[in-house]
Amino acid sequence: MSAPGTIDTDGTAGPDQPESLFNRLYTGTGAFPIVQRRRLYFLLTGAIVAICLASIIFRGFTFGIDFTGGTKLTMPAGDADTGRVATVVEETLGQEPQTVQIVGAGNARIVEVETGFLTSDEIYATKLALVEEFQPVAASGEVSIEAVGDSARSESWGGQVTQQMIIALVVFIVIVFGYMALRFEWRMSVAGVVALFFDVITTAGVYSLLGFEVSPATVIGLLTILGFSLYDTVIVFDKVDENTRGSKHSSSSTYAEEANLAVNQTLMRSIHTTTIGILPLLALLVVAVWILGVGTLLDLAIVQVVGIITGTFSSIFLATPLLVWLKEFDPATKRQTAKVLARREKAGATA
After folding, report:
1. Closest CA to 185 of 11, 311, 329, 44
2. Which residues form the Protein export membrane protein SecD/SecF C-terminal domain (predicted)?
3. CATH number, domain at 50?
């Protein structure tokens, strides 16, 4: 008999007594019917993917200068502010700059201005206007303004980075599918790869919806989070494999119930892993925004925070429910489920 408010490992409930949320999380007794409500989570994940794909297709991405090409002007910040800098650049060029941001802290603060590709004359005129307006003086006592970026080279380089990312992603997915098929079974491979695709689409969709700038650091971070998502999924699948080993001969619980129990047993571990993974990234965000200014660290931290959250969601609410859905097409699983239900119906009629 179960303790009050718990659910037996065979999926049956104990005495109907209230039990705290934290107790259910820590005991991992299968109190959360995640697999049993898989249709709800399938609809939810489908809606999320649809929204993200729609944003990617119709809204697109905000690509950084490394992908689109252009010119970047930097100078010591001094007492300059982004509004005044943008005004000077717009009056000089006749067009608004793409971005104006202050990076760094203290005497190391600099202003970064990104524009479309400028000619040598336009670069010279903009530099002269900024010098006259702000008198930027570096620590050495000399004016320090530089222009970098070439439209054709940047677009070519951005295309190469994108191509290499796609190749790396395909190779990673093939390796993951092969490993999980050998370690577990092909259905787990399919569910795990679907969860990875969900993570990539969702993370990319969030970037598109919120208009975050896509930089090389974003690409690196996106590939990094796939490892985290896979780790979390494999942990859950390992527990599912342990619980369902020999389940074909069991008459006490179905495959779905044992899989749901496995998710519950690893739920607290997933929460701890996600929390521990996000905390240093939040610290990195604080450092990037308040101390060093907006830059590569911010791009890297944002994509990993979004990816870790989506990876945790997919490993709990998508991968295992999808595995169970695929498994229920297996004739052996169907027979075992029918045997368990028939035994319970008989026991209920006898009682």
Report:
1. 329
2. 144-328
3. 1.20.1640.10
Do 111 and 44 share a structural domain?
Answer: no
Which pLDDT tens digit goes with each residue over 151-175? 555 555 566 767 777 888 888 888 8
- Smallest CA-to-CA distance from 241 within 328, 329, 320, 173 is with 320
pLDDT at 247: 66
pLDDT score, position 152: 52
Q: Is residue 40 in some structural domain?
A: yes
CB atoms within 10 A of CB 299: 23
Which one, of 320, 328, 317, lies nearest residue 247 by Cα?
A: 328
Residues 219 and 247 in one domain: yes
Name the pLDDT band for 7 (thresholds 50, 70, 90). very low
pLDDT at 18 (0 to 100):
55
Kindly state whether residues 145 and 160 are assigned to the same domain: no
pLDDT over 80 at 69, yes or no: no
With H, G, I as helix, E, B as strand and everything else as coil, classify residue 37. Answer: coil
Quote the number of domains for the chain: 2
Q: pLDDT of 252-297, one tens digit each?
A: 788 888 899 999 988 888 888 888 888 888 877 777 666 665 556 6
Same-domain status, 227 and 252: yes
pTM for this one?
0.76
First-residue to last-residue Cα distance in the chain = 16
Angle at alpha carbon of residue 192, lines to 188 and 194, rounded to 5°: 120
**In this structure, what are the phi and psi dihedrals at residue 101, rounded to the nearest 5 degrees?**
-145, 150
Instruction: State the residue range of the domain holding 116.
Output: 70-149
Q: Is residue 15 part of a domain?
A: no
- Output the domain CATH number for residue 122: 3.30.70.260
Q: Measured between alpha carbons, how far is 181 from 173 in angstroms, rounded to an integer?
A: 12
My answer on whether 141 and 197 are in the same domain is no
